[in-house]
Design goal:
Helix content is 9%, strand content 39%. By secondary structure, the protein is mainly β.
């Protein structure tokens, strides 16, 4: 992983309206006690992305800030390098509702419904492996209570895709043998059904009918006692 390339990618300007306020704060320090679990030590930040979310959550006055920090010289892949904050404007001032220390190699974000309540949730990129399989952190949005719920273990799913007709999540992982598995959000945690279907060739070198195998595994999931 190359630190310089990672953060240059983040300079692209986007937001809910494809507009982003980007602030260069290279000389700004942030005190360790203000960070959740003290995951990020006090150090120089590179810049922050400020996203005003009026077009996604109308009349809610939400704001997202992703503040990115430089990694230490001998950083580990699991080191946190980004502070994510979620705020709401109340009486003309933004009040912070959630703050989380995360690891984000690219820093991109998306708004997608991942639990079938018709409300777009927040995904923030976590890592991309050697085969460009991406993972994300997922925060479920509760508009009624102005609350985010971070889904545990969601960032273990590579290339997640929500299937609204089944209220399931599947994926397609690029590897020596591409594979797909199925998951479901249960309260604030990801449940893995444990079924895997492969694409490409089987152990004997015969081509796999992926569509047929996918449907067979999906049928098993829908009949599983843990599916609901």
């Amino acid at each position: 992983m190359k630190k310089i390339i990672i953060f240059l990618v983040l300079i692209s300007i986007i937001s809910c309206h494809k507009h982003l306020e980007t602030k260069n704060i290279a000389s700004t320090k942030i005190d360790t006690p203000t960070i959740v679990k003290k995951d990020i030590v006090a150090q120089n930040s590179i810049f922050e992305n400020v996203i005003i979310c009026d077009s996604v959550y109308q009349n809610k006055n939400y704001k997202i800030v992703l503040r990115h920090f430089s990694w230490e010289k001998d950083y580990d892949e699991n080191d946190k390098n980004t502070v994510f904050t979620f705020s709401k404007k109340i009486n003309g001032k933004y009040q912070e509702l959630l703050r989380d220390s995360i690891e984000s190699h690219v820093g991109t974000y998306e708004f997608q419904d991942f639990n079938g309540d018709k409300i777009k949730d927040i995904l923030i990129q976590n890592i991309s492996d050697v085969r460009s399989n991406w993972t994300y952190y997922l925060y479920l949005v509760d508009l009624k209570n102005d609350k985010l719920t971070k889904v545990k273990n969601f960032n273990q799913i590579k290339n997640p895709r929500y299937l609204p007709q089944y209220n399931l999540i599947d994926n397609e992982v690029m590897s020596g043998r591409n594979w797909t598995s199925f998951y479901q959000i249960k309260k604030d945690t990801i449940f893995d059904f444990g079924y895997v279907t492969y694409n490409g060739e089987d152990d004997n070198g015969n081509a796999i009918d992926f569509g047929k195998e996918y449907d067979k595994v999906l049928s098993k999931v829908l009949k599983n006692k843990n599916y609901k």
